[in-house]
Amino acid sequence: MNNALQQLQPYPFEKLRALLGDVTPNPDKRPIALSIGEPKHTSPAFVAKALADNLDKMAVYPTTAGIPALREGIVKWCERRFSIPQGWLDAGKHVLPVNGTREALFAFTQTVVNRSDDALVVSPNPFYQIYEGAAFLAGAKPHYLPCQAEHGFNPDFDAVPADIWKRCQILFLCSPGNPTGALIPLETLKKLIALADEYDFVIAADECYSELYFDEHTPPPGLLTACAELGRRDFKRCVVFHSLSKRSNLPGLRSGFVAGDADILRNFLLYRTYHGCAMPVQTQLASIAAWGDEEHVRANRDLYREKYDAVLSILSPVLDVQRPDGSFYLWPNVGGDDTRFCRDLFEAEHVTVVPGSYLSRDVDGFNPGAGRVRMALVAPLAECVEAAERIRDFVSKR
Which residues have CB under 8 Å from 5's CB, separation 6+? Predict the structure, then answer.
């Protein structure tokens, strides 16, 4: 067996099940889960129709590179969304369809990491678990950058020593962040690109929450935006990951894309050809419909704004909690043991949230997620409001 498997930690939800396994929740209250970040809004009907209309394509072997129409549709979306000059992104070189960002992030790490004793994969802390597992199984070591309130819940990149950058092979970014919802400023992205050039590492920007934001007039920038402003039309050392899961409420479609540095994507395509993970043609055709429409995405943001407004008005008087820059999470400070908070809340109110310490790692005795919990506002409005009211009552009684 691959001995690197022994380095993998239990997934946060496995830890959560163990934490709550012997707890009997209040039988008078129905369960409400704010734990798993699975979108619950209605999937677009026109995407389902496009999928159904093309079920005959199940008789066709898909290519790993995907059909030209999908790659071209993704390029057009990137140009509109991130202000990329027309012609900079080549659909045949700079874009690759993938089966959701989770699969792509893992496979990308296996492609990029050059196995060595001192190879590092650098990521925020707390972080999406795939970054760590992918690093271990690629033969690298994860290095964690704490995300604390004093730095806007982003890593303090200026505090990273040169010897870490020298060993870094991939820098994972997540903006808006999971679980913090923090955006990485455009000027910071530009500084990180300069560091990538200086120390020769790849920036892998996980932007799967990029379309969940609050100000319709100011969409958050991404790594491609920074490349465009720098005149970096080769997107050297820069790769972004996007998905239809959160943007379009299509987590079961397993559809996303990777875009950026053509040299890296050429090697990633080679890896994926052997990996055997081509997107079915009917899924590609449905994805074209989703990437080509923004009306359903704006309606999706409206639903999340409504939930944030309602839930924060209930929780703000009793919890240290702020509206994030984006995503669908809240990251409140519960003022003590986060695992005890989650366990007691489940027992008293039958509401499930995730301990922040389960989403982070201890480094030198410090866990930046400790004392916080993650709440995913994915349930319908009425359910989120009821959960918030139960949490308010629970906190008020403590």
Answer: 137
